[in-house]
């Protein structure tokens, strides 16, 4: 399971690059900033670690484990595009996936002692689903889709990280059916994203 946590993100990255031919602009920044983030998180650890199965555990999953680690590189990519920090056009999904590679590697190292399938398998699946799902909806908006579809895309961008964190919380709280249902829900845009080039 540790190998899955280590390899899943880079496998998806190279698969996506092979299928869509996405640009490599910002790749060095993504790897550099992702590595710095991973090292800082590795040495500092979690800001808080709640016990039980309550709302605090959901917030912990959202902030520390599942959603925020993916939302940060997406936000950084957005602001670098906004302020022309790239030499060319950047791909949100590729940038986020590259950022997550060193984070996944160090998390695989730190989580391997627990041998917990939720952390080592479910969480990497959710990372990729958020990164590629949000990028998919951003591409729909940027490419000038119907206004109604644009509104739905914005709602989905907001819902995906929440659904992913809830999936993690459900698995952690042993609500396995809810966890799998939300995992499948968050994976649908991930599957659809391969049909959009950029």
What does this protein structure show overall?
This protein has 198 residues and is an all-alpha fold. The protein is built from eight helices and no strands. Helix 1 (2-20) runs antiparallel to helix 5, helix 1 (2-20) packs parallel to helix 6 (117-142) and helix 5 runs antiparallel to helix 6. The mean pLDDT is 87.
**Class derived from helix and strand content:** mainly alpha
Largest sheet at a glance? none
- How does the overall form come out from the CA principal axes? globular
Instruction: Give the helix level as a range of percent.
Output: over 70%
How confident overall, as mean pLDDT? 87
Number of strands: 0
User: Topology as H/E string?
Assistant: HHHHHHHH
Secondary structure elements and pairings:
Elements lengths: L1 H19 L6 H18 L10 H11 L2 H15 L9 H20 L5 H26 L4 H26 L3 H17 L6
Helix pairs in contact: 1-5, 1-6, 2-5, 3-7, 4-5, 4-6, 5-6, 6-7, 6-8, 7-8
Supply the key terms.
198 residues; mainly alpha; 8 helices; globular
In short:
The chain is mainly alpha-helical and 198 residues long.
